[in-house]
Specification:
seven-stranded mixed beta sheet; binds pyridoxal-5'-phosphate; about 350 residues; four-stranded antiparallel beta sheet; alpha/beta
């Protein structure tokens, strides 16, 4: 399968001929010291915030490329990976015609965005171990399928999806297969990107700096794809999607790999401690193995426990209405102190009430 065939099949035809907005900074590429091209206020106060940001995020992309060992031509930076999800729908889906496939229980934004765009969502549920079922996915694919959403490690279940099944899906469709690796830094496997990018031009990988890198408030997500797909997304994004402050601060923080690794190691240690504590707590019916920075666990009365925790100032996530997640709550791994508060109130609820 060639990238041309992938583009032809998935990209909305009118976008090939689109003339993208050309910003002031696109039109002039040389050196200058007098910038009178963008109707900016010339008075610099704190920082360079009177000037528009680099629409191509050149410095930041360079840094991200080095960090992830990926060529800059394969990188799209988004205002969170949620922006990348939005743009993938914009680029590929025709309302009322196209369809996408999700594998529930999974991250909610895939279906929310489909709803916004008026696109049919087909479901290929994960099995009882929250693993992909090859036939279920393949059975949902037809000529109008544009995006297949695979989340690995999966949110909210925490497990990695089976790599050979991901490959089987990639090799059996011309649709774009999006592997959302928001939590890959917490997992004991590396990205699927390097392994499959050359063989499967329909592979798209999403990553983010919101989770392991601790920059959720800055809004910075990464999409890895074939350069032709990346180019197309750059043509349809808003010109200044990553603001100056985010570009500057992210560039600074990405220099500190050691800090990030130390924090991830601490979170992984806390994950093990918390999992063991939950397993030893009477009334906890199950704790699922996690390759991410959260734990999914099962109790008899999830809503009551959720409310009890909330009344005591501890907020976790109720996932019990998700398919296959009956009785399940999801707790993010916090600091040791936060986790201890969570476990002590949980124990109190479960033992006091004889639940
Ligand atoms: C948190 C999360 C995201 C969104 O990340 P942002 O980069 O903050 O937009 C994407 N996918 C999954 C599975 C997530 O859990």
């Amino acid at each position: 399968m060639t990238i041309e065939a992938v583009l032809q099949h998935n990209i909305r035809p009118h976008l090939f001929g689109l003339k993208p907005y050309s910003s002031a900074r696109d039109d002039f590429k040389g050196q200058a010291d007098t910038w009178l091209d963008a109707n900016e206020n010339p008075f610099t106060k704190n920082g360079d915030f009177n000037r528009y940001p680099d629409p191509h995020q050149r410095a930041l992309k360079e840094k991200v490329g080095k960090l992830k060992n990926v060529d800059v031509s394969e990188i799209f930076l988004g205002n969170g990976s949620d922006e990348a999800i939005d743009l993938l729908y914009k680029a590929t889906c025709t309302p009322g015609v196209s369809n996408v496939i999700i594998c529930p229980p999974t991250y909610g934004m895939y279906a929310v965005q489909a709803g916004i765009f008026g696109v049919e969502v087909r479901e290929a549920p994960l099995d009882a171990d929250f693993q992909l079922v090859t036939d279920r996915v393949l059975a949902q694919i037809d000529e109008s399928t544009r995006l297949i959403w695979l989340c690995s490690p999966n949110n909210p279940t925490g497990n990695l999806l089976n790599r050979s099944i991901i490959e089987t899906i990639l090799s059996n469709t011309r649709a774009l297969v999006v592997v959302d690796e928001a939590y890959i830094d917490f997992a004991n496997e590396s990205s699927v990107w390097h392994q499959y990018k050359n063989q499967y031009p329909n592979l798209i990988v999403l990553q983010t700096f919101s989770k392991a890198w601790g920059m959720a408030g800055l809004r910075l997500g990464v999409l890895l794809a074939n350069p032709q797909i990346v180019g197309l997304l750059y043509n349809i994004k808003l010109p200044y999607n990553i603001n100056t402050l985010t570009q500057q601060l992210a560039l600074e923080q990405l220099a500190n790999v050691t800090q990030k690794e130390t924090e991830v190691a601490a979170i992984l240690m806390q994950r093990r401690t918390l999992a063991n504590q939950l397993l030893q707590t009477e009334g906890i019916l199950r704790v699922y193995d996690s390759q991410a920075n959260y734990l999914l666990f099962k109790v008899k009365e999830p809503i009551l426990l959720y409310r009890f925790l909330a009344e005591n100032g501890v907020v976790i996530r109720d996932r019990s209405t998700q398919p296959g997640c009956e009785g399940c709550l999801r707790v993010t791994i916090g600091t040791q102190e936060e986790n201890e508060r969570f476990i002590s109130f949980t124990t109190k609820f479960l033992t006091q009430n004889g639940r």
